[in-house]
Amino acid sequence: DAKTTQPNSMESNEEEPVHLPCNHSTISGTDYIHWYRQLPSQGPEYVIHGLTSNVNNRMASLAIAEDRKSSTLILHRATLRDAAVYYCILNYGGSQGNLIFGKGTKLSVKP
Amino acid sequence: ETGVTQSPTHLIKTRGQQVTLRCSSQSGHNTVSWYQQALGQGPQFIFQYYREEENGRGNFPPRFSGLQFPNYSSELNVNALELDDSALYLCASSLLGQNYGYTFGSGTRLTVV
Fold first, then answer.
1. Which of A15, A86, B67, B107 has the smallest number of Cβ neighbours within 10 A?
2. CA triple B83-B89-B94, angle to 5 deg
């Protein structure tokens, strides 16, 4: 199974940028990198995904290393509503819907 | 977008009983997946349905079964409930393929007593 490694927790101040790292050294060429977040008492929420190039959307940016063995989710200005558990997941060919969630990174945002 | 809706939101069952959880997929999506999330853990994949057939399955026993209907709604059935089945059950819909994100519902909290 394609695996990712994330820090257990991170802290940020409100309105500051947050960089959430993820290592995926066993990634293969066709694996997509997906990020989801889960707020308390809610289902996971899709944030962003990419294959090789950096990606931007209204929620965040995804920076992918050139060798694709790591990636960083960037929240440009953290708000209190961004406090959640963030999951970095490899969506691999033949996964047939099996997103392998690890423990994720619990992000705390201080006012 | 209609999102993914699940029902009921909470449920209490007795050990040995059977339960059916329901999910309505996001409009336009053709796959539905089910996940089990124990307290303090990440979600674990149960199975995925595509074109009304099981398309992939995680490490769950056969007493976990499902259905997908032509309108892409879905059911998760669990027979012979055990105490360890107490968890949040999440439904997620998507288009088939790796290059699509999944839309999750808010889940059904099942408690087995």
1. A15
2. 155
Q: Quickly list DSSP for B52-107.
A: TEEEEE-S--TTEEEEE-TTS-EEEEE-S--GGG-EEEEEEEE-SSTTS--EE---
Q: Chain B residues with CB inside 8 Å of A93's CB?
A: 98
Size of interface A-B (CB pairs under 8 A): 68
Which of B39, B102, B103, B108 has the highest number of chain A CBs within 10 A, making it the mutation to test binding with A?
Answer: B102
pLDDT, tens only, A3-54? 899 999 999 999 999 999 999 999 988 889 999 999 988 999 999 999 999 9
- Separation CA A102–CA A36 (nearest Å): 11
Write the residue in B55, B90, B102 that is nearest to A46 by C-beta.
B102
Q: Does B3 touch chain A if contact means CB atoms closer than 8 Å?
A: no
Distance CA A29, CA B31 (A): 24
Q: Nearest-CA residue of chain B relative to A47?
A: B101
CB atoms within 10 A of CB B12: 11
Average pLDDT taken over every residue of chain B: 94
What backbone torsions phi and psi does residue A32 show, to the nearest 5 degrees?
-90, 145
CB–CB of B45 and A92 under 8 A?
A: no
Place of tokens 């055990």: B82
